[in-house]
Specification:
Blueprint lengths: L6 H17 L7 H8 L3 H7 L3 H14 L9 H15 L4 H15 L3 H12 L5 H10 L9 H19 L6 H13 L9 H7 L7
Helix pairs in contact: 1-2, 1-4, 4-6, 4-7, 5-8, 5-10, 8-9, 9-10
């Protein structure tokens, strides 16, 4: 009977791959190098992941999961904090160093995007921006027909663009961006008419 994959080996391989990504281009990192850095065999690596892309997808999701949570109960505030965590607070941390390389890799390997999405769906934390938007739609804070992926693009996309174009994201930018985008995503509400307008709309009494 085959032995189940070791969790210790699993974590060692993830840690080794993260360290290699910090020092090298992802395309240049082989599964042999990952296994060697982790002190494991290549066959052990393949017991846990089908290939390097599957491993990279889990690494990305677990990096996101290390970010501080945002669970104040105010969806707009939480979304702002998550964006700040992703693009401001961790710019000098491990995620900030690895994240640009992952996006460069997806540009050259579009087939990896599906693997990345599966990894994030499986391992991303409850405090992710996706979860915040989905909950806000469910509670009526955001419009019922909102595409969650479109919401993610509108909120995270400009910050990602700024990060790669300018090298960093200023601390005030997430809040400024949410102030512009959030009202566009909110549920449509019919504004109340002023009293004068309500009187004007009343039908005239019969016989007058």
């Amino acid at each position: 009977m085959a032995r189940p994959p070791s969790q210790a080996s699993h974590q060692a391989i993830i840690g080794a791959f993260m360290e290699l990504i910090e020092r090298h281009a992802i395309d240049d990192i082989t599964t042999d190098a990952i296994a060697k850095a982790a002190g494991a065999s290549k066959s052990t690596l393949y017991k846990h992941w089908a290939d390097k892309d599957a491993l990279l997808a889990e690494v990305t999701a677990r990096l996101i999961a290390t970010m501080p949570g945002a669970n104040s109960g105010d969806a707009r505030s939480d979304a702002t904090q998550v964006l700040r965590n992703m693009f401001v607070e961790d710019q000098q941390g491990r995620l900030g160093r690895i994240w640009p390389k992952i996006f460069g890799y997806t540009a050259c390997h579009p087939e990896f995007c599906a693997e990345l999405k599966r990894g994030i769906d499986a391992h991303a934390p409850k405090h992710s921006l996706f979860s915040i938007l989905r909950e806000a739609v469910a509670t009526g804070e955001l419009r019922a027909d909102l595409s969650i992926e479109l919401g993610l693009d509108l909120l995270a996309g400009p910050l990602m663009h700024h990060r790669f174009l300018h090298g960093s994201v200023p601390p005030e930018l997430p809040e400024q961006l949410v102030a512009i985008i959030w009202p566009m995503l909110q549920a449509k509400r019919v504004p109340a008419l002023p009293a004068s307008a309500r009187r004007a709309k009343r039908p005239a009494a019969a016989g007058r």
